[in-house]
Amino acid sequence: MTRWWRNIAAGLLIAAVTISWIGAASAQTLRVGLAEDPDILDPTLARTYVGRIVFAALCDKLVDIGPELEIMPQLATEWQWTDGNKGLVLKLRPGVKFQDGEPFDAAAVKFNIERHLSMPGSNRKAEISAVTGAEVIDDQTVKLVLSAPYAPLLAQLTDRAGMMVSPKAAQAAGEHFGSHPVCAGPFKFVERVAQDRIVLERFADYWDKDNIKLDRIVYLPIPDPTVRLANLRSGGLDLMERVAATDLDTVRKDARLKLSTITGLGYTGITINLANGERSKTPLGQDARVRQALELSIDRDAINQVVFSGEFQPGNQWVAPSNPYYIKELPIPGRDVAKAKALLAAATAPKPVVELMAVNNPEALQTAQVIQAMAQESGFDIHIKAIATWPTTH
Prior knowledge:
Layout: E1 2-4, E2 12-21, E3 29-34, H1 49-58, E4 63-65, E5 71-73, E6 76-82, E7 87-92, H2 106-118, E8 131-138, E9 141-146, H3 153-156, H4 167-173, E10 187-193, E11 197-202, E12 216-221, H5 225-233, E13 239-241, H6 248-253, E14 257-268, E15 270-272, H7 283-286, H8 288-297, H9 300-308, H10 337-346, E16 353-359, H11 362-376, E17 381-387
Parallel strand pairs: 1-16, 3-12, 3-13, 16-17
Antiparallel strand pairs: 1-15, 2-13, 2-14, 4-5, 6-7, 7-9, 8-9, 10-11, 11-12
Helix pairs in contact: 8-10, 9-11
């Protein structure tokens, strides 16, 4: 089985695009248009990309990440590796409260880490699997104990693995916590109407409340990018995420709108099932030559031009080619249909059948169709399966 991550194909790096309506600056309520409706609002269980956007206002993390990928303080103000990098000691910010008034302290961190590791269905367990537990040193100091050194741990704590929920609220709500989350962020949960809106309001006791200028945030899931943009242009939204590449020219010509773009870490690619049950027992899942043939069938530059109007940056790694961490010795492979056919012949799989999952939106489906046509020239028989939204833990 193959899987799409967001909109693009085979490691094509995306330019994150956000548009705001200039007339919204004085508003006390910020209306944000989302491309999908997030899944459960529980940091331990959540998977969707758009969920992160809501969590940014709802749930502070132990540490944050800056534009140059530097680790920055948030709920933890200092950190130090100990015990041969098998211990991470975190100094916590004093005076922080959860949105139910409960204090944020080392015991709360211990609870959250153990919840990530032990809760059924946890999507954080794999992210921090090197952590075996947490030790309370004092109210404002906690130590994460690791089974082995694990360099990505701090980076993981800048996302949902580092989000802290109220132990009291989580224990009281049990499996229903995601329906009324309680965190330590600048905005607290008010209500959610599925496929319609998520409403947050300013938390009066937030530790950095002087820098919070809004009273309320309303997130509105509007899957169709054309409808989302129309709402923004009419003043029904103040901000939207992920404008369609084909609409960028329209946006740039509208003096009322402000466009923000960045080539970042948000890559999209085809994820292949290699060892997960019966569905992995296919030529694509079992033979590296078939996977290489699929790679050689795809022209990333053509996808970028045809589907995304040349707005995005093709790539083949987890960072863009312009990033200092990009491995230049492994450049983007060019399309080579003849070599792809030869690989399929050598693998005795001249016409492998592949199911390709794609989000049910115009860009994702068009991208899948372009890949389908490209791969067909090499001999692949790709069946596209449209899904409602993207579950992702990355």
